[in-house]
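User: Second chain of the day. Same drill as before.
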Amino acid sequence: MDMTTLKKKDFYFDLPKELIAQDPLEDRASSRLLVLDKDTGAVSHHVFREVADYLRPGDCLVLNDSRVLPARLIGHRPTGGVCEVLLLVDKGDNLWECLVRPGRKLKPGAQVIFGDGQLTATVEAELDDGKRAVRFHYCGIFLEILEQLGKMPLPPYIKAELEDQERYQTVYSKVVGSAAAPTAGLHFTPELLEQVQNLGVKVCCVTLHVGLGTFRPVKAEEITDHEMHSEFCQISGETAAIINET
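Assistant: Same format as last time:
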């Protein structure tokens, strides 16, 4: 396929809203599993806990141990107007690259108050693509404050409020940094992972922080004009050795 001939309209398809699940299943491993046979092209439908049936002793299962940052902060301006700040990239020294709403009210110099004032912020600069450089002010540990005040940045097609924020984390998440969950891994349970390891399957982790670009729409009509976002990825020597041995 010649990518230079593809237009945005070539990717249009109808997805009825009523088919988009709004709440996670109580049992993660009960989610659906679609299996494609590479040799025959046959497609079959299963439940996710059956994924172990497609693994063999000596295989290697690679997991992404990135943990979602509760990066969506709802606050207010000193005048009382409600606003939202979404953390994107940590620039160091409490300065973050962010998306903000309403953008017209959050120009350089604007102040934002979160919670009862245990966290405040100052917009320092306008960046490209509508983003802002925002510096945060607080006492204590920033991640602990985020756990208290922040909300999960759910995909725009999920309208229901998330009651248990851990349901938007994989059971093996460890390294905080994603703007969205590595969703394929949400269906694993500790019991299923133990079953996989008991089969003689090697399990190792990489860290890939999913960026907000995973939600952002393609705006360019010509696909080759679309600017792809970048994401942080890290692989340890131990994991590389396991993969190479496999």
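The chain is about 10% helix and 30% strand.

User: Great, on to the next one.
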